[in-house]
């Protein structure tokens, strides 16, 4: 980032509204790296969410089968009629939430990377838009 | 500024384009999502997991309605693509999922809500759809001039015809005796339906097994609907137990009881035989030949047999007093529930994608508005 500043300082002749080429490249590289990091983190969260959810489902089923009680969701959550079932539902909920956040991060990173790649592929169009 | 505005429009355009494309390319077997959700819900209900059963019921009703809406939209706006599917060897049999899904939803209404009227209405709809699908698809495939080879034309999805036939029998056993006075006539019609399903299974599985063993078989050929090989016999087992349980007191079923019992166990044994085979083939596909596990609507065709196996085993336990099998049913219910959840996450990720696109578009628009207001205030300051 520091080098970007010095570069933009040295190219003093650059007209307002135009982005000097080196600065633009540095920004692109930075954005790509950030998008990839987001994808990686999202990927890990999705995997963790999957595992936690499956574990939650299995534990919930085992708790209910062992408890032998035909209980509704409200009875499990508020009255804890089946021991451990409430805890397993919490695990399930956390797993699902992790998956959702992970998916959001992963897809956001992918779309950002796609957009940058699209802009890099046709830089003339981007410059033209900037000039306008 | 113009670039930002065009980006925002482009994002919105992508959302619309994606929705339109999804409707245009909608697979006829998307009803398998309702089939799978419904049967997992019924498995949970029968095993006492009432909370999950209820939750899945409330997920399944909008899912079933949405798939109908999308199918109708496709039939209206993309009529050519819709009609082409009816004569396609690969996609045509997928229409049978509409029959099975209708029956499964009907069974859910009957068991979870004790609503016989809706269940009966859905049985009538399913029986009509079964007639249309059976005699439209098989006739269209027969009279088509350019036909694919056996290796390219046949897949596990063909067995959906069996699933549809047996599902009409299962729901019929549960609702028809309450509406038709002549129970013997009901027993006759439903036994005929059950036997038709068995006949179709024997024909089709012979071709599928022949295709497995005598033609090239690439990992990409082993699609998730191959699990219907097992699911079709599992639902045949369920139909057999339904005939024995709900209509066992009729003169017809009483006279052929040992035959129905024998065939029911034969179907269950066949379903059980398929499970290790399909598991090994799945391991070969995904772990040896490295085909990535990514979401495909066809995966619903994998969840349904798992849930159906759990339900049919439970009914078998009750019919033949085989209490040692109860844990098999419970185990499969757990596997089916986990598989349902993972497939549902896959489906949901499409929705999340649209959500991400929309959020980005809104964020871009907000940024745009903020910038223009700052600009206007700056211009206002300069002129004053």
The low-confidence runs of chain A, each spanning 5 or more residues with pLDDT under 50, are 1-15, 123-132
Helix content of chain A: over 70%
In terms of quaternary structure, what is this? heterodimer
Largest interface: A-B, 30 and 29 residues
CATH topology of chain B: Glycosyltransferase
Order of helices and strands of chain A: HHHHH
Tell how many strands the DSSP assignment of chain B holds: 0
The portion of residues assigned to helices of chain B is: over 70%
Strand content of chain A: under 5%
> Which segments of chain B are poorly predicted (pLDDT under 50) over 5 or more consecutive residues?
none
Shape of chain A: rod-shaped
Q: Work out the radius of gyration of chain B.
A: 24 Å
Alpha-carbon Rg of chain A, integer: 25 Å
| End-to-end distance of chain A | 26 Å
Mean pLDDT of chain B: 89
What is the H-and-E element order of chain B?
HHHHHHHHHHHHHH
For the record, what CATH class of chain B applies? Mainly Alpha
Q: How many helices of chain B in DSSP terms?
A: 14
Count helical runs of chain A: 5
What is the CA-CA span between the terminal residues of chain B? 24 Å
Mean pLDDT of chain A: 73
Protein architecture, described:
The complex is a heterodimer of chains A (132) and B (384). With 132 residues, chain A is mainly alpha-helical. The longest helix of chain A has 47 residues, at 21-67. Chain A contains five helices and no strands. Helix content of chain A is 83%, strand content 0%. By secondary structure, chain B is mainly α. Chain B has one domain (30-354): Glycosyltransferase, CATH 1.50.10. Classes of the chains: A mainly alpha (132), B mainly alpha (384). At the A-B interface, α2, α4 and α5 of A face α1, α3 and α14 of B.
